[in-house]
Amino acid sequence: MDITDTAQRITSGDRRALARAITLVESGRADHRAQAAELLGALPRERQALRIGLSGTPGVGKSTFIESFGMMLTGQGLRVAVLAVDPSSARSGGSILGDKTRMDRLARDPKAFIRPSPSQTHLGGVARRTREAVALCEAAGFDVVLIETVGVGQSETVVAQMADLFLLLLAPAGGDELQGVKRGIMEMADVILINKADGDLKATATRTCADYAGALRLMRKRPQDPAGFPKAMMVSALEDAGLNAAWATLQELADWRRENGFFDKTRATQAQYWFEQDVRAALLAQLDGAQARAEMARLGAEVAQGQTDPALAAQQMLATLGHKQG
Amino acid sequence: MDITDTAQRITSGDRRALARAITLVESGRADHRAQAAELLGALPRERQALRIGLSGTPGVGKSTFIESFGMMLTGQGLRVAVLAVDPSSARSGGSILGDKTRMDRLARDPKAFIRPSPSQTHLGGVARRTREAVALCEAAGFDVVLIETVGVGQSETVVAQMADLFLLLLAPAGGDELQGVKRGIMEMADVILINKADGDLKATATRTCADYAGALRLMRKRPQDPAGFPKAMMVSALEDAGLNAAWATLQELADWRRENGFFDKTRATQAQYWFEQDVRAALLAQLDGAQARAEMARLGAEVAQGQTDPALAAQQMLATLGHKQG
Predict the structure, then answer these.
(1) Residues A34 and A145 occupy one common structural domain
(2) EC top class, in one word (chains A, B) (predicted)?
């Protein structure tokens, strides 16, 4: 791959070049990693998309929301990319965005770009590559990058580390269920959207929204929020209701953070986080090769059988890796 | 240090040799790590102490309990070592066992050995070294090794990874406070001891004990437990009440697990865990040197200022470390 040429094509909006570049950053091969890093380094750094993390458990209507919200944005002339961090794909090889038919209107929209979550062996790998796909989409001139995840395990934390704003999508529910949302996720949310505020569920949605608004008011004030944030709002992806208001709210928040330095500060912290993660991951990747795995298994079995101490076996493993003792 | 000689002295019960060896495993220096691993590998592997993890938040009377429980054990002719994993010492440099006067009777008992938590920069380091100190105490012929921790962050998980049995010490409390104990900790406990079952608190202790017994019955059955476990019991460290019963219960559980294979299986899993942790820690230790830190800081600042992509900076860092790209 010609790095300079590819960087140029991506910047000029060549979708095939973008797709190929994402495939490159998703690769686990050492030479691909080096190329990917070179490409990421060669991209122009002045373009800035609004990166929106979006979490919601299955059943809240996430696909419908992304499609309606995405169509509303492209309708305003904005270019929208949709990426995903899917911890289940890390296990099963499946993907929450694998089936583009879930959002077939948006998938056919020339102003939109949908990319499923890479199938990887661990969440850390999926996360890192999604972070890099976000950077590629940004360089490709997308105005909004939506990063979807499901409310499972650490995936929200990981998405929050690559998003400017974090949206939590919830379904209307009884008061008791309010406790079901993990406190950590609530603390991460910038805007909570109660979806399905339509038909029979509208009254429940209104109550749910008030409950969450109340819960948010009780939470500790964060420095990165203007008055009134985090906010709970109602939307109906099905009826296209509240989507413009939600977008206006997100923009209001992003503008305030830009003006008050929090936008750049968060990005700086995130970039450092990914840099450190990348270095650590590469150091630990020495254990991924077939030979290293076999030796880890052999020494691990010795240790498990009590034949040697874990610390001594570890020194032997390091010697095998050609690593200086210590 | 003469490794063979030191191993022999430890095995023959030389307390000064033991103390020096613990200091060695606590050291972060690369040559010390290599020596420590060699020493741990040279120890006889047939001795087996009962390793008891003990958690309890400040105020539950943990020191008084350890002293009374320890004195009861030494009174039966058993040799008792007390170690600690203290996450706060990782931050402050202080130590929960630093002040031996907290347990001055036990500290003066020739059958007991008390060692404060090492002051280290991160919990992982403290944990690993405590695991190694446990192995040293075991080789030194102690019958019981108590590993104390406070109910903060991940410290209990870490202690559970080096203990055969896990004791949770609680104070008498109203029913509402039952929720205060993190579910994860409850699931880790083999025996819950309600301390301070004396004087004015006796009635409350009885109620609290019944509450926890009920809560334990509602929890998912674990394969490593015989009928009736995990168990909640009352003790009074102040009045030396219930300590013999608690010890009998712990022995009953340990015996059952030994007979049913769970004892060895847990130790095997733990040993493998520490082996893998050791290898990872050593690979990441390449980032600990002064030069590496400076380079990480320099590249981190570039990344934070948006001058380069995290992935490219990571590749540059790896090149600095003399690590092959990828």
Answers:
(1) no
(2) hydrolase
